[in-house]
Structure prediction request, 601 residues.
Amino acid sequence: MSTGIVTTDLRKTFPVRRWQGWRRRPAAAPVPAVDGLSLRIPPGQVTGLLGLNGAGKTTTIRILSTLLRPSGGTVSVDGLDVVEHAREVRRRINVISGGERMVYDRLTARENLWYFGQLYDVPRARLRVRIGELLDLVGLTEAARLPVERYSRGMRQRLVIARGLINDPAYLLLDEPTLGLDAPIAHQLRALIAQLAADGVGVLLTSHYLAEVEQLCRHVYLIARGSLVAQGSPAQLAGQTVRRHTVRLVLAEADPSVTAALRALAVRHDAELTVDVDDEGRPRFALRHPEDLVGAVVTAVVQQGGAVAGLTVTPPTLEDAILALADPAAVAR
Amino acid sequence: MSVMGATFVRNWRITVRAYPWTYFVGTLATGVLTIGVSMLAYRAIGGGRVGASFTAATGSADYLGYVTIGAAALTFTTRMVLWVAKAQITEYREGTLESQLLTPARRLPYLLGVTAQALSTTAVEITVLVAVAGVLGVRLSVPEPLTLLAATVAATVAVVGMSVPLSALMLAAGEAHITQNTLFTAMALLCGFTFPTSYLPQAARWLGEALPVTWALRVLRAATLPGADVDPWPAFAVCLLLGGAYLLVGLSILKPAERRALHRSARA
Prediction:
């Protein structure tokens, strides 16, 4: 029965050893990479796992995929414990990592897929068809007989994607899967991920491309220093922080009365104002506030007889929310 | 096709594409040099005769045949160990260990696939080495086929048995050269490749007895040395037992070693 991937109070610490005299001894406090994480990755949807670098995303994926053993807590895949039933779990999952090699350079794409198909015990007739489908899917049919060492980085990553699908996994763990891919292929991969989820595959996605997460994920877990700090839909997550619109204004020429009016406006609304000059030496203002103050800004400039050379408004994004939730100190700075 | 068969095919393809002829020459050079230097010493220093102690220890006065078989066996052992023991650390270094370990495939069939391919490549190397020895003037007696087959089986079990724990050590330590070269030096000294083990001090002799390769070599000597009236089967049985024990120990420590390697790369 497909019950999804469930982690309960998952923990992973890496012992740190230091030389003391002639011996390496464990350091007093081991480093927690994952600290009490409880997640659910249901079948048939894309779940996001977000966090800044070093938050514990890749370690979590390695535990879910049986590569690392948890130091504490439990992980089950369709009710099977990943430590006790590792081999059975491996039949149901696969991992696609961006920027990692994972394929054999001296074999061709077809030979790589054939070999991994054998390791997954895919029946011979099915494997032949599957290899053709996957090569077609990732656009490597014409290059299928070239050794991988002659591939570009993007072609290699496409082969890594095909390798990750060779066993028709019930759960797919994607760690930055579009890293290094050209826009059309990345777009195609996103469509594929959505299609896989629609077909019932449970997908866990980590990505630095937040538009990708907003487009694909129904539910997102946000982690920092190995712990869960927030969860919800991308929209709910963005709503959990004080969101700020940024109004950027460039004046045609310097005008002290306009500058004074904008400073007064910022004080009145308790907004954050920064003032500098652009490349052409024109005064440039950035006003950040939870509300969109563009109307008030334009009114203040016009009332003081100023001339606007440029005006943009940036609405709050998921990225703002992640930064605010995962590292509030950095945002405050 | 099984994991073993698939790994055999994979390694064969990689070897055909990546094995330079210069490497082949380098592999042969060590064996040829061993035979050549022994031949010079035998003719120029020993006057073409061996001492009574050699004949007593080996049951034969054919020193050049003894050295040639020993050099071939040493080439076989080092080449097989290099292939089998280094298989997983090579995967680790080339970034494919994780994609291997993600699959449900078991380690033993994988290692046997590597072994099967290594046997086919090493057989070619040994054949050329023995042919070169023939050109240099070494004349080998025709081996007894059944005993030669037993020697080949024994040697394969011995090197695979030793390679698996060695593979685990390499993965755990994250390095190959120090580990492999320490083993090669120890084997060359202790196992009786180029001189009888009875020449060794007692303590060293006991160390040699603990290595299955020493016993495999005794079966090989029984098959190839004229006049060496030795029963090969006790040595064959000991070799299988020792090789099997090494293999079991190796398989039991291989998974912890893999986890240690994955920890290391996760922390990197």
Observations:
- Residues 210 and 319 of chain A are 7 Å apart (CA to CA).
- Chain A has a mean pLDDT of 89.
- The radius of gyration of chain A is 25 Å.
- The interface with chain B takes residues 14, 33, 58-59, 62, 65-69, 87-88, 90-91, 93-95, 100-107, 111, 114-116, 118-121, 124, 147, 163, 167 of chain A (CB under 8 Å).
